[in-house]
Amino acid sequence: MTRLSGGALLAAVVSCSGTSGRDPDRPPEAPAAPTAPRDSLALQLGGGVEIWFREGRQAFDSTGAACYERTLEIRDTAGRRRVPLLYTLESPFRLDDTSVGARVYSRCRAGDAYRVSLRTGRPTPLGR
After folding, report:
1. Strand order across the beta sheet in which 99-106 lies
2. What is the reported pTM?
3. 70-79 b/e with 16+ CB inside 10 Å = b?
């Protein structure tokens, strides 16, 4: 029978345990949270008006599939106006010279379309 020194025995135990030197009493590290996408241009209108996708939220549909619903921001020479309480997966669309349309999303599912004022950023349901 072969005797192992203390150091050799420790090395043999670590290599067989699969911990690769990690403290077995310490739980494994959680995977890094997905990073939010950067701001990106969603729609460019005349007169220097732009609609941008901004920060958002991670969401999951009924099957557990993930999506990232984003907010919108209007940018022009007058400044920046965030569109409140409207998370979307789709690019907004031009309605007229004063507004764009955008579809709201919740849990990765499309909801109602809204008219968004280019002047104020306020969304109102389309058809009203």
Report:
1. 93-96, 99-106, 109-117, 123-125
2. 0.71
3. bbbbbeeeee
CA distance to 35, 62, 68, 69, 102, per residue, from 32 (Å): 8, 24, 16, 19, 31
The gap between the terminal CA atoms of the chain, to the nearest Å, is 89
Q: Which of 64, 65, 72 is nearest to 101 (CA)?
A: 72
Return the closest-CA partner of residue 101 out of 75, 63, 77, 127.
127
| DSSP bridge pairs for 66 | 60
Dig out the tokens for 105 from the structure.
Answer: 């999303």
Residue 24 φ then ψ, to 5°: -65, -20
Residue 93 near residue 103 (C-beta atoms within 8 A):
no
| Farthest-apart Cα atoms in the chain, separation | 90
- 31 CB contacts (<8 Å, ≥6 apart)? none
- Domain edges within the chain: 40-125
Closest CA to 101 of 69, 123, 120, 80: 123
pLDDT in tens, 7-16: 554 444 445 4
Q: In this predicted structure, what is the pLDDT of residue 37? A: 80
